[in-house]
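Protocol step 4 of 6: record predicted structures for both targets in the notebook before any analysis. Target 1:
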Amino acid sequence: MQRLLQVIVISYLVFNCCGYSARSLLPPHLHTVAVPPVENSTMQPGLDDELTELLITAFNKDRNLRVTTLDNSDLVVLVNITTYSRTATAYDEKQTISTYDIAISARVEAEDRIRDETFFKGMVSERINYDPDSETEEQAAARVLENLAREIVRRIITTW
């Protein structure tokens, strides 16, 4: 009998309490989000405008929060790009760079306007490797920004 009880308890825990989920963990009072223009503290131009658009797209694709204006929003997502780096990571036999690494980091703060408190605050970073013979730095940076936007949205909607 004790063995059966252990199996039932373990089964309950495994199937109901454990595991990964990317579903929204947002409180029920949050329905809308505003994405003011992203700030760019790096020397790399254009990242701010591109990330702003990508964040709006990512929130629209996610569909847990409806993107709206600042005046009508329950949640405001403030983003500041703090780091942009491009580093050679591999060389071929002629000592020519064959792979670069691009990394972009941003400070993110989501403000709950209903409860007047910080909902999420943290650094979010993404990086990729790319071959300069098959992709330009701008194309690779665009891929990093797209990943960064998705990760920012994921972190916000899965905040405990």
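Target 2:
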Amino acid sequence: MAPSNTGVRLIPQENRSGDPAIAAQGFGRISEIQPPSFAPGALDAAYDWFARYGYVVLRACLDKRELAELNAFMDRTQRERPDAWGLGERRRPHHRNQGLIFSQPLLDHPELDPYTRHAASFPLVARILGGVERVRFSEFNFRETPEHAGAGTMNFHHDAVVADRLLRDPYLPCDWLCAIHYLTDVDADCPAFCVVPGSNRFATLADAFATLGDDYREVPLRGPAGTCILYDTALFHTRLDGDGRRGRRTWHQYYARGGWLPSSLPGTKRYVRAPSPVLTDWNLFPERLALHADPAVRLYFSHWNTAQCEWVASGFDPAVRAAMPRGYQ
């Protein structure tokens, strides 16, 4: 991002929202310039952009058939499994914060298995995390900000982080990586995933703002359905509200880094980076994947939390699953 105010729309803090319940998102330095997007096969250029800024945009990662299939899946499961989406009798307040979420669709829908290592985005995922043998599956979900949802309350935040990220050398591979695929077009009127480039190297958004100076940007990422955004979970990000009327559908997938890596910290000898910790304490992997006949698939789905261990030890008892958070059936 160019070190000047060119292409930046400055929003005074006092004018950002007339509703005190709505978050004043970030510092109001909204970029009017979209970053470059990369073809899925442009691994070197896409990796270099990610290494510099902590995120990258890949274009046309999902084709028309895949988009139709995934949107049809969302339509069908919202009708057939409303509780899984928060649309049942105990309806969740889905028009705020993250919107509708189907948290663990892989548990009951093996037709989604081919998407867990999608051909368009996975090669870059593997490059960022240090090789195919180091990529571990963490989470897979669908989300929707419904039409006419109104303004939200999500402020800038980062996801899971490891403290040594601020000092270690080299920084990459990162600890966790998220892929967001747009399942609907995202233009200026839609809620957009918004990032602060380079903020993954800072402990707070205020630190990033103070240190980056004129390079500080809040960049809403637009794009047609099929666009994929890969980001380091340490990157500060949010959902930037659109006009409050247009909706958005997304597929989110999280990856962890497996294996031990040599690294160093200032003033110390070289040390070994352990595998990334588990991302959540509730996410479950179905038996068909966790105990897959192919050792490579088993390795990919081997990043188990305590809930998964207990479910496996029970023989994948459905009653044990049902007693766990988001273990609905």
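Step 5 preliminary note on target 2. The longest helix spans residues 64-80. The chain has a mean pLDDT of 89.
Proceed to step 6 after PI sign-off.
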